[in-house]
């Protein structure tokens, strides 16, 4: 029997059982080893803060048409091909694969929708691919330049990965802004030069004039942070909004300094590639970059929780209520493993 996770109401998930799917002639049957929770969009769905009439991303065919309850959601599953349909090449059998598929123990899929996991990357690491791809897309949109001052608001899972990738650039300064102390400590470990709470930003990034950030990413999911991100950005600076606020309203102060500062504000979302690059870039090329960057990331720092799928409710509660300790969560389906909790970090107002 297949086990599938279903969002039935705000802050409520259920595990449903049904017969395993029978793959069609042009499909394969995948046994899921682990799947990861998206701490951005998926938490909005869990908390009831996603607009239920919004059509699901075209890239996520396995989910359904919209975000109304009841809903099967999730888009980071890694597993093994157990069976191939009559019209599918036998070479697929036994392959380690990644799929943009909801949380379920087995699923049938078109091989064209699967990504083969490169050698040397475990299923637990592979489920970070969408997060890394999203961070790669932010950098492709933001185009950080040598010597620039860059700020990243929000150090959840995608913010931490974005900070880690930016730390490899020859920037003048890299600032991570995050209200939760445990996440600030992780950002520092991943290469940020300055790690501060929103009300304790260092003097290097003044709120006016050329002293502000050249490039700012708003990845917190908090609508109030966008105003802070704009204030922190200097004259002729760029602000890229990677957050999806769902049904939460955003009120901006666009008077005063903003009016004269020529600051640009642009959305950045992984479903598409910036028009300037589409002549030479496609999703396959971006996936390759994401796989390569994934190899260098400290998975244990990013995936703090691993629980059996039967304890999914516990994982969502921790992600929602204990952000200092819980950053990324994965569900396992077939193996037993004891995972020790992450150490608690002291909450510093600002680490310089």
Overview of this structure, please?
By secondary structure, this protein is α/β, with parallel strands linked by helices. It has ten helices and 16 strands. Strands 3, 4, 5, 6, 7, 14 and 15 form a seven-stranded mixed β-sheet that branches. Strands 13-12-11-8-9-10-16 form a seven-stranded mixed β-sheet, with helices on both faces. Strand 1 (2-9) and strand 2 (12-18) form a beta hairpin. The longest helix is centred in the middle third of the chain and has 14 residues, at 129-142.
The name CATH uses for the topology of the largest domain is Quinone Oxidoreductase, Chain A, domain 1
> Percentage of helical residues?
10-25%
Q: How many DSSP helices?
A: 10
Q: What is the correct CATH architecture of the largest domain?
A: Alpha-Beta Complex
| Backbone CA Rg | 21 Å
**What is the 3D shape?**
globular
Mean pLDDT over the residues:
88
Tell me the strand percentage band.
Answer: 15-25%
Low-confidence stretches: 337-352
């Amino acid at each position: 029997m297949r086990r599938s996770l279903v969002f039935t109401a705000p802050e409520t998930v259920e595990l449903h059982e049904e017969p395993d799917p029978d793959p069609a002639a042009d499909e394969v049957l995948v046994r899921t080893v682990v799947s990861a929770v998206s701490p951005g969009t998926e938490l909005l769905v869990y908390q009831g803060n996603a607009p239920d009439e919004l059509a699901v991303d075209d890239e996520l065919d396995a989910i359904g048409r919209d975000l109304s309850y009841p809903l099967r959601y999730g888009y980071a599953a890694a597993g093994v091909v157990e069976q191939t349909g009559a019209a599918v090449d036998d070479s697929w059998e036994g392959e380690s694969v990644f799929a943009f598929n909801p949380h379920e123990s087995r699923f049938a899929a078109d091989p064209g929708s699967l990504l083969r996991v490169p050698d040397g990357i475990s299923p637990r690491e592979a489920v970070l691919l969408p997060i890394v791809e999203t961070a790669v897309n932010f950098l492709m949109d933001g185009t950080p330049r040598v010597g620039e001052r860059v700020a990243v608001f929000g150090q959840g899972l995608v913010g931490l990965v974005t900070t880690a990738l930016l730390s490899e650039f020859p920037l003048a300064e890299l600032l991570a802004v995050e209200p939760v102390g445990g996440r600030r400590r992780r950002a520092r470990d991943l290469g940020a030069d300055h790690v501060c709470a929103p009300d304790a930003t260092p003097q290097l990034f003044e709120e006016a004039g050329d002293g502000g950030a050249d490039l700012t990413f708003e990845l917190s999911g908090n609508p109030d942070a966008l105003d802070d991100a704009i204030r922190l950005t200097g004259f002729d600076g760029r602000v890229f909004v990677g957050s999806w606020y769902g049904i939460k309203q955003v009120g901006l102060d666009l008077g005063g300094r903003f009016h004269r500062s020529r600051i640009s504000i642009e959305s950045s979302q992984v479903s598409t590639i910036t028009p300037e690059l589409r002549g030479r870039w496609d999703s396959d090329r971006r996936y390759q970059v994401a796989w390569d960057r994934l190899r260098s990331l400290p998975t244990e720092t990013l995936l703090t929780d691993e629980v059996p799928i039967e304890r999914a409710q516990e994982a969502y509660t921790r992600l929602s209520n204990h952000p200092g300790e819980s950053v990324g969560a994965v569900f396992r389906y077939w193996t037993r493993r004891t995972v020790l909790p992450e150490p608690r970090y002291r909450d510093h107002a600002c680490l310089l």
